[in-house]
Design goal:
The protein is 30% helix and 12% strand. It is an alpha/beta fold and 763 residues long.
Length: 763
């Protein structure tokens, strides 16, 4: 793994003499009280400002403050004109802009593209406090207010839109957000290293155009700047992963004009693009014909850039889009990733390799900064739902090596787990106990993107740095992965033994296929850290969708359930697993959803709320959705097609199968069963899915016929309904609280890079 400067090794900026601010200022009045005439950096966010490390602006702001910079925050500014963006004046160094902890489009719209009425990151949950595509709008308003200021964008929204990407809400390929925002620099992934280096280099007087060698950043190259630096080589992405024929065969006997016309109108790949010249004027682009695969692999990785198909090419050709997605995900390991470049019209978007993960010492330093752990006083007594969910939770790690194709965690935070020390975590629990208002002795979560990847890593750093697998646990747990849960078990035990701590719950998603490698961990979790029920995420039942999700088969679920039930019974607790499932994911047929519905009924589960697949930008599953190709395998013109349930009617049917018990869905399910030749599943029998009759007032049906039986008895007795999401069990769990956070997870995304929330995080 390449070396990186220590996060806290920089000499502090001179403004450190002003000391630590009680809260990062949101107004000129607060700046005056601090003795500031100007902010060095102003962070703009779509979230309310909560001074807590699970909220991106606070984490990055406090980190920059620790470097000696004066940092102000514009939280949820009115974007309708530029006035609100002048509240703190112009910063001496730069504006840092993010949509917030969530992608603004996911935050504002459901998977059916309906506008949400609420926003968990806003006082009183009020909706409409941020614009669509917030990063673009905020950057444009900032430019209007201060045209000469440096603008740096980041966070989950910018990170997942750093190259040409499929946009579900407009159903088209959009350009890199770097162009639409007109920002100077884009930070992707966990952003601590990047923003600290950017700040110090700008403070030394370097122009922003010179900041083109920072890992985890993207920037534009135009005109003469598009020449390759001396000593660099440019590799055609098709030599890394050839997607098959990229252009129609040219008739060797055709006239030259006709040959040029065919090339001009073809859906070309990067090898047909005009060559790039290096500083010596030598052609540096290698085509498939001139650079063999072995040669491409042997080039100096630190001085090689892979040219992806252009925006115009992927916009015209879904197969090239899937190919570009596959190459992007293959170049995600900081130990071996190469730079990427993608043409957009007359400009190149250049992506440097991913940032180096933080060390344990650096993680401790970031989470031990002087957070107040409460909302800014500006909000008064207003309640902010997201804060309520995580105020008593503690981040212990970040990153995820699961690689689920629908989830943004791995592609954003990376698959190398970054851990805090045991001492740092216990110290933070003590601070919560002693300082956070309303604490009752219950820690709501010790976790992160997943609950049980703490201190789990590859057995060999050399293998880890060379590995290009998208997941360490699919199709099975890698033999090179150290699955020892001992450090996590020890942390759990020490946390619950702290004075004043009554209970430590685990609300982050448990990766159960990993957990069964350590029965002792399952025992510890089940007997001490479950509040009556535990949510886990099989996501699907059939092999078709599971293979496209990169999720384990149900065999792992059954093994985990066996251990969970066994250890619950040992201590006399009646506890239940609450499984999550996704409807309408690529690879899911009507038959798959029917099979899942029958399984749910057989086991007495009734879904309270149902999630349909939402194609978030840059996800591998989104490439499947758009192209019909599977980027988990070699993408060619003739590679197998992925079945994608796109139509609104079919997506609703898939959700209806998950809620088979809802009488409003019965007419739709009956129609589908007849069409599928499964009318035998219509009736009142235990083996049947829905009855033939319809209760009055449901599904637009006539009144219930005489003697049809009581309403709501399908599938057994009325189940206990969980408070939030997931699936109901046929019985009420006992032995603890039923609190379980929906969002955000602890250790949420960083504003200029950080943990993704483009959808519900998966375990």
């Amino acid at each position: 793994m390449p070396e990186a400067p220590g996060l806290f090794s920089y000499r502090k900026f001179w403004a450190a003499r002003f000391g630590v601010a009680p809260f990062l200022p949101m107004s000129r009045e607060e700046m005056d009280l601090l003795g500031w005439d100007v902010c060095d950096i102003i962070l703009v966010t779509g979230d309310a400002y909560i001074d807590h490390p699970s909220f991106g602006m606070a984490l990055v702001g406090r980190l920059l403050e620790a470097q000696g910079f004066r940092v102000g925050i514009l939280a949820q500014p009115d974007w309708r004109d530029a006035t609100a963006f002048t509240a703190l004046g112009a910063p001496a160094l730069f504006f840092g802009i993010t949509a917030g902890n969530m992608d603004s489009m996911v935050n504002r719209y459901t998977s059916e593209r309906r506008m949400r009425s609420d926003d968990a990151y806003t006082p009183e949950g009020a909706g409409g406090k941020r614009p669509d595509r917030s990063v673009i709008v905020y950057a444009q308003r900032t430019r209007e207010a201060y045209p000469a200021s440096t603008v740096v964008i980041g966070g989950i929204e910018a990170s997942l839109r750093r190259i040409a990407h499929f946009d579900y809400w407009s159903e088209k390929i959009r350009r890199s957000v770097l162009l639409d925002s007109k920002a100077d620099l884009l930070v992707y992934g966990n952003g601590e290293r990047q923003v600290v280096e950017i700040a110090h280099r700008l403070a030394k007087g370097e122009p922003v155009a010179a900041l083109n060698n920072i890992r985890g950043t993207a920037f534009l190259r135009r005109g003469e700047a598009m020449r390759l630096p001396a000593g660099w080589a440019e590799i055609d992405s098709t030599t890394v992963d050839e997607p098959g024929p990229l252009a129609p065969q040219i008739d060797p006997y055709a006239m030259e004009d006709e040959r040029q016309r065919v090339l001009a109108t073809a859906q070309v790949g990067p090898s047909e693009l005009p060559p790039t010249l290096n500083d010596d004027g030598v052609v540096a682009t290698f085509s498939v014909a001139t650079l063999k695969r072995g040669r491409a692999q042997r080039l100096d990785r630190d001085h090689a850039v892979i040219r992806l198909p252009s925006f115009e090419a992927v916009n015209a050709d879904p197969v090239l889009y899937a190919h570009a997605s596959r190459v992007l995900h293959a170049e995600a390991n900081p130990g071996n990733a190469r730079a990427l470049v993608q043409r957009h019209g007359d400009a190149d978007v250049w992506l440097n390799p991913p940032p180096i993960p933080l060390s344990t010492k650096e993680m401790d330093g970031v989470y031990e900064l002087p957070y107040q752990r409460v909302p800014h006083p500006f909000y008064g007594a207003s309640k902010i739902p997201a804060y309520k969910m995580i105020r008593f939770s503690v981040t212990i790690q970040r990153g995820c090596f699961g690689g689920c194709t629908f989830c943004s965690i791995t592609e954003h935070e990376g698959r190398i787990i970054q851990n805090r020390s045991e001492q740092s975590v216990l110290k933070e629990i003590g601070r919560i106990r002693d300082t956070v208002p309303g604490f009752t002795g219950v820690i709501s979560d010790l976790g992160g993107p997943t609950a049980n990847m703490y201190r789990i890593a590859c057995k060999s750093r050399e293998i880890e740095s060379a590995c290009r697998k998208p997941s360490c646990v699919y199709p099975g747990v890698c033999p090179n992965l150290n699955t020892d849960h001992g450090p996590l078990i020890q942390l759990y035990r020490k946390a619950r033994e702290l004075p004043g701590i009554k209970k430590v719950l685990i609300a982050s998603g448990v990766r159960y296929d990993l957990a069964i490698e350590s029965p002792e961990y399952v025992k510890e979790l089940t007997q001490h850290h479950v509040g009556g029920y535990l949510k886990i995420a099989p996501e699907a039942f059939s092999e078709g969708p599971l293979s496209k999700m990169m999720k384990p088969g149900m065999g792992s679920y059954y093994k985990f359930k066996e251990l969970f039930d066994k250890y619950s019974q040992e201590v006399g607790k009646e506890q239940y697993l609450i499984p999550y499932f996704i409807a309408a994911h690529p690879g899911t047929t009507d038959e798959d959803m029917l099979e899942l519905a029958l399984w749910l009924k057989q086991h007495g589960f009734r879904a309270d709320q149902v999630q349909a697949f939402l194609p978030s930008p840059m996800a591998s599953a989104t490439a499947m959705w758009h192209s019909g190709k599977d980027p988990l395998h070699k993408v060619t013109r003739t590679s197998p097609t992925v079945y994608v349930p796109k139509g609104l009617k079919q997506r609703r049917l898939h959700k209806s199968f998950l809620r088979y018990h809802d009488a409003n869905n019965w007419p739709e399910i009956r129609e589908a069963l007849r069409r599928m030749g499964r009318s035998d599943l219509i009736g009142a029998g235990k083996h049947q899915l829905v009855p033939a009759w319809q209760p009055a007032g449901t599904g637009g049906a006539p009144p219930k016929p005489e003697g049809a039986g009581p309403v709501g008895t399908v599938g057994g007795p009325r189940p206990f309904r969980t408070q939030h999401t997931g699936v109901e069990s046929g019985r009420k769990p006992v032995g603890g609280t039923t609190r379980a956070p929906q969002m955000p997870r602890p250790g949420g995304p960083r504003p200029v890079g950080g943990r993704p929330t483009g959808g519900r995080p998966r375990g």
